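subagent[fold] <- orchestrator: predict structure for attached chain, return C-alpha cells only, no commentary.
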Amino acid sequence: MMRFPLRLTADLTRARLVKKLGFTLDARPIQFLDATEILHHDSSHPVSHEKIRNLIGSRSPVIWIGGSEPLLHPGIAHLVRVTTGSGHFVFLETDGTLLRRRIHEFQPMPRLFLTVRLEPTAKSHAPNGVRAGTFELAVEGIRAARLSGFLICVHARVRPETELGEMAGMIQFALSHDVDGIVITPANDGSNSAHSDTAALLRKTEEARKLIGSTWWESFSRMVEPVLSGRQSAARNAGESGIRLEQESHADEEGVRIA
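subagent[fold] -> orchestrator:
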C-alpha cells in the first residue's frame, strides 16, 4: 500500500499557508526545474553557481526536476544531493532508460523520489498497454532502484486517446512493482487544442486519478499539474488540493513510511 510522507504533507501545507498569508511571494509548493537550466550536457560543472544558490535557497518544499532527460547530465547526482541536503523534497523525473546504468551515483534518502515516466497508449502492444521501446529498460531501472532502497514514483500522462482501462492496467502494473507513489497529469505537448478538447482531457485525467487508490497521491497529482502544464484551471485545483492534504493529515495519519 502506498504511503504519502507526513513530512511532505506538512511542508506542502506550510508553503501554501505562507503564500496565502502573503509572507513571501516565492513560497510555491512545487518548483519545476529543467536540468539544462543548471547543468551542462557534457560536464559535471553547473552552468551557474548563482542558480545553484537560488535553488538551494528556494522556499518551495518540492523541486521537480524534469524537462530534457536529467540522467543525460553528468552532474545530476550531485545536484540531487545538494538539493535534498538543503531540506527540499526532490522528484527526479526520467524515462527510466538510463536509471539502472546510473543508479549507483545516487543515495537512497527519504527526500528523494526517483520518478519514472510511463505512458499508457492504445496503440502499444507492450504488456499492460505501456508504450514499447523504453518500457523494458524503465522496468529494469525500477527494479534496480527498488532493490537499492530508493523511493519510487511513477508519473503517468493522460492523452486524448488514453483509455481508462489501459490506465488501470498501468496502475496495477506499477503497484505490482511496489512503487511508493503515482502521479497522473494531462499530457502537455504545447498544442493549441480547442477549449472543449482541453476540458475533456482534464475530465479524463480526473477520472484516471480516481484509479490511483490513494487520496493523498490524487491530491498531489493536482498540485503537480499546474507546475507541468501551466493551466490556470489546474492552479485552482492545486489550491483545493492543499486544503485537502491539510485536512487529511489531521484525519488519517496513514502509518507513513519514511526511510
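orchestrator: received. Logging for downstream: The beta strands are 30-34, 62-66, 89-94, 112-117, 151-158, 181-186. Residues 231-239, 249-259 have pLDDT under 50 and may be disordered.
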